[in-house]
Every structure is written in structure tokens, then in C-alpha cells.
Specification:
The protein is α+β, with helices and mostly antiparallel strands and 373 residues long. It folds into 2 domains: 105 residues, Sandwich (Immunoglobulin-like), CATH 2.60.40; 228 residues, no CATH class. 25% of the residues lie in helices and 24% in strands. The chain contains 9 helices and 16 strands.
Length: 373
């Protein structure tokens, strides 16, 4: 998935900037009401509610549990492995691993493309309790043994001068991200940064009440993310939105562990906890029950209006319109609803008042009112 910034000229001769955030809110296998206890919450209360939802999950075994899990959680349709340290989404990686066949079995390869093993993206040296963190699939990914060993327990960061570059473009070098402690870091390629950011949001949330079992390091004070890391991870989260790979993995992990990553299901949760997002007007109950398939938030809105709908192959395109109380169209665009499930509209230039949002497809029309402050 990608964010697409478009400047559209609409009626009343105003130009709006649309952020197409491809939110797959209705594409998941989450049970009805899964996130209901988090409805309308922000900041720490939201983090607490999400922790209570996802924390008590099934603990897998390290062997053979994780090895077996990767056959469903990290496999491509080709039978090859998704590896965040060697793969290149949308491109051609230098090598690929066959799930099962190429897993490590005691050898220590001296270079890349030797075998894949189990990588704790939040380093295992940074928590003091083996379970359930040691075998949590949202923490432990299959990765190239050699790259994993060279990354070690370096924090993720922004490399200034690379001292080592791996075949997919991941690097090790000095961390130059503003505010980061002086030292070496590991920087993954851009198309995996969002995956890893949401992974860290999950850890900080799921294990909030287990913070004493974690060791403080560059990224976090125990399990609480440090300010510079929050800023960097939110940037990664926004610049590399949720992909179909993550959606599939989230569903596969849920089938095995019985819990989900909230920041894949509902990406705006990250902003409502660590950023400037406002989830107080978001009804998670409405999102999960789907109702008429149209969700608008926040309402009232100030700077941005988010409009989301249920994806449906029987309605390939939608017309989204916003009208003032005089019935004048102030915004309109057509969207390919099969590939997109939401848009965000900048409200710069709008006057305060009541507006109508209307979505029209080949089946029906759904209309809702929104207040712009």
C-alpha cells in the first residue's frame, strides 16, 4: 500500500490536497467487537485498552512452534519466504529462501543466502523473561541468518555513513536520526520500515504491563518508546502504510496466537497514542459492525476529515461528495473502491458549519452529516 498525494480541482474552484490512506479496515478477520473496549479513547487510556485486548494470547514453542508458524505467516504464494532483511517488495531480491527447506539447522553461514533463522526485531537481549515475548510472532520474524547476526541488538535508526550494506539495501552505520543516542544502528529498506514500526508499537502496547521484564536501551525505557524513537517510527508508519503482506500475516498470526496487531488493523491508533491523532470521535463499534459501510471521523472535524467505506467488488468505483447546507458541492472525486477503502480530506479553507458527505455507487447512496469547526 502507498500514500498518494493528489491536488484536485473541484467545484467552487478550490484546490484540495487529498491523502489517500489505503486503510484496509474492513479487510481483516477480526471478530465483531474485537476493538470495542478501545472505542473513543486517546493516548494512554487507548494504549491500556489495547493492551487488555491483545495481551493474553497463546504462547507458541520456540521449536518447532515458530518454524512451523512461518509456513503460514511468512510464506509467499510461490512458497518462498518473506524476509525483511533480504527481500525487495515490488522488486527482484538477490536471493530467496524456500520455507522449511532453507531454515537454519545448526550451521553458521559466513555470508548472506546461507539459511534463515528467527530474528527478534525487538532484541531478545532487551527483555529478561523468555516467554511469551521470546516466541511472539509479532516480535520474531524469519530473516537471513548472516544479516540477523550482523544486526545483533543494534537499534533501528537512520544511517549516516554506512559501514556495511546488505544485498537488499539495508545498512549498518552511525545513527544520525535527530535526538538518537550516538552509536551504530541498523536501517531497513523503506518498504519494510512501516512493518517494523507497527511491530514496535505492538510490543510497547502488548507488554505495557510487563515493562519491568524489559531492559532499557536506545529505543525505549523498558517497554516505553523514547521520544526520538516515537518520532522516527511514526514517520516510518506514515511513509510506509500497511501492505497486503501485513494484512495476511496479521490474520495468520491471529489464527495461531489468538491476538492481533491493532496498528495494522487500525493504523490511526498509533497517532492517537503517540502522535496528534484524535480517536475520541471514532466509534470502533461502528467500524467493526460495518452498519451502512460508511465511517466518518472525527466528527466534529477541524483540520482533516477521514472517510472510509467497506470494500466491495460489486461496486468498483465510488463518487465521494461533500456539500454545504445550501446544497452546493464543495468537494467531489471518484475513487476505485476495490483498491482503496478510505480518503482523507484537508479542511483548509472550509468555513465552520454543517456539511453533508455523500457516497454514491452503482448500488445505492449513503449520506451522513458532519460538523466542521
Amino acid at each position: 500500500m502507498v500514500n498518494i498525494l493528489l491536488s484536485l480541482r473541484v467545484s467552487m474552484k478550490r484546490t484540495f490536497t487529498l491523502l489517500f490512506w489505503l486503510l484496509p479496515l474492513f479487510a481483516f478477520a477480526q471478530p465483531p467487537g474485537y476493538y470495542l473496549p478501545a472505542s473513543g479513547l486517546n493516548r494512554e487510556p487507548l494504549r491500556v485498552a489495547l493492551c487488555n485486548i491483545i495481551r493474553h494470547h497463546t504462547t507458541l514453542s520456540y521449536t518447532p512452534g515458530l518454524w512451523t508458524a512461518y509456513h503460514t505467516t511468512d510464506v509467499k504464494t510461490s512458497g518462498k519466504l518473506w524476509d525483511v532483511y533480504s527481500d525487495i517488495p515490488g522488486g527482484t531480491p538477490a536471493y530467496e529462501y524456500t520455507v522449511g527447506t532453507d531454515q537454519c539447522s545448526g550451521s553458521s553461514p559466513s555470508g548472506e543466502h546461507g539459511c534463515y533463522n528467527r530474528e527478534h526485531t525487538w532484541p531478545q537481549s532487551k527483555f529478561t523473561s523468555d516467554t511469551p515475548m521470546q516466541t511472539d510472532l509479532f516480535i520474531v520474524y524469519p530473516t537471513d541468518y548472516f544479516v540477523n547476526s550482523k544486526r545483533g541488538d543494534f537499534p533501528y535508526g537512520k544511517v549516516g555513513t554506512a559501514t556495511r550494506t546488505f544485498t537488499n539495501g539495508s545498512t549498518i552505520g552511525d545513527n544520525v536520526y535527530p535526538g538518537a543516542p550516538v552509536g551504530s544502528c541498523f536501517e531497513p529498506i523503506d518498504s519494510f520500515k512501516g512493518d517494523l514500526a507497527r511491530n514496535y508499537f505492538y510490543v510497547s502496547t502488548c507488554y505495557r504491563n510487563d515493562s519491568a521484564k524489559f531492559v532499557s536501551w536506545e529505543i525505549a525505557t523498558q517497554v516505553n518508546l523514547n521520544p526520538w524513537a516515537i518520532q522516527m517510527l511514526l514517520e516510518w508508519h506514515h511513509n510506509d502504510p500497511v501492505s497486503q503482506k501485513e494484512i495476511d500475516r496479521n490474520n495468520a498470526v491471529y489464527a495461531l496466537q489468538g491476538n492481533r496487531n491493532p496498528f495494522i488493523d487500525n493504523p490511526y491508533f498509533a497517532d492517537c497514542i503517540w502522535g496528534n491523532g484524535d480517536c475520541s470521535k471514532v466509534s470502533v463499534n461502528n467500524i467493526n459492525s460495518e452498519n451502512d459501510g460508511l465511517v466518518i471521523y472525527p466528527n466534529p472535524a477541524k483540520s482533516e476529515l477521514n472517510i472510509m467505506w467497506t470494500q466491495n467488488s460489486s461496486r468498483p468505483t465510488l463518487t465521494v461528495g461533500v456539500y454545504d447546507m445550501q446544497g452546493r458541492e464543495v468537494f467531489s472525486t471518484k475513487v476505485e473502491s476495490v483498491s482503496k477503502s478510505g480518503i482523507s480530506i484537508s479542511l483548509n479553507g472550509y468555513t465552520s458549519g454543517v456539511y453533508t458527505v455523500r457516497i454514491i455507487d452503482n448500488l445505492n447512496t449513503v449520506t451522513k452529516r458532519v460538523i466542521i469547526e
